Amino acid sequence: MQRMRVADFSIRHTIESAQPLTFFGDAKSDGNGVAYACGSSMIEVEQKGDSIGFRAYGSMRAARLRDEVRARFGLGDDMPVIYNNIETDAFMKKAIRNYRGLRITRNDPWETALCFVISQFNNVKRIRGIVKRLVAAYGDAHTISAGGTQLVFREFPKPEALAEMSVEELMRHGAGFRAKYIRKLAQECCGSFDLGSIGRKRYADAKDALMQLDGVGDKVADCTLLFGYGKLEAFPTDTWIKRIVEHVYFDGRKQSISDIHEFASERWGKYAGYAQQYLFWAGRNMKVGR
DNA sequence: ACCCAGGCGGGCG
DNA sequence: CGCCCGCATGGG
According to CATH, what is the number of the domain A109-229? Predict the structure, then answer.
């Protein structure tokens, strides 16, 4: 078990706030830890006060594990600077007070894109169920021995595994009308579409490229850029964010999606993604506009 | 029963 | 362009 001191970090808020880890990781019962598959390794992270402990089952060197955990949970983000930039008003101030330590996680782009393609016109509980059934059905299995007992886990399914499944087969896991998008996304990602090149583009170009994919629109592209590529200026605008922004900043007046993008970009700039996650989680838990 | 969910593509004006 | 509609499925 390695340990690391952390400031301005809450693993609970981070893993509960409907990020990719919510969809494929398993939270500890007390909410202060999570286990997730990272390639062929299983990683466990838990938090006690201002330090985290973490370990990997499977072949992962200590230095690589440390880098993975640091990157995955956004522990390199300068939270005092970010808070200073997004604490623009009373609502944001309260959101930061209530959810301090919530970080933007950085996940595998393929995993992120798939999770958010599944998220469309769906709810968090069902998204998680569908993702976990896909992992159980199509993820490569690994057995690890820990203290005399054996543990089996499955890694996230590779695009190659999903690409060869029929739409009907994928629908058996409750994916509904998204099954055709899942299949096409998988085929593209193990075919001509280069997910690696997206990260090297600037935000606007990367978004245009992602939106070429069938089933990836404005919102899924922004989620993929934020949680998969760490592009913190992305401001995913779903029904919750739209309603919250209209309620908090426009006195309830309806705004278009592009109005909201423009507003967020002007107000929070390169940290709009962080503002979005605090708005989303605080507003959703307060049922703003509901 | 009815409504909605971290939207998207297609068709229309 | 902007607007409107249908869409699989299951929980509240």
Answer: 1.10.340.30
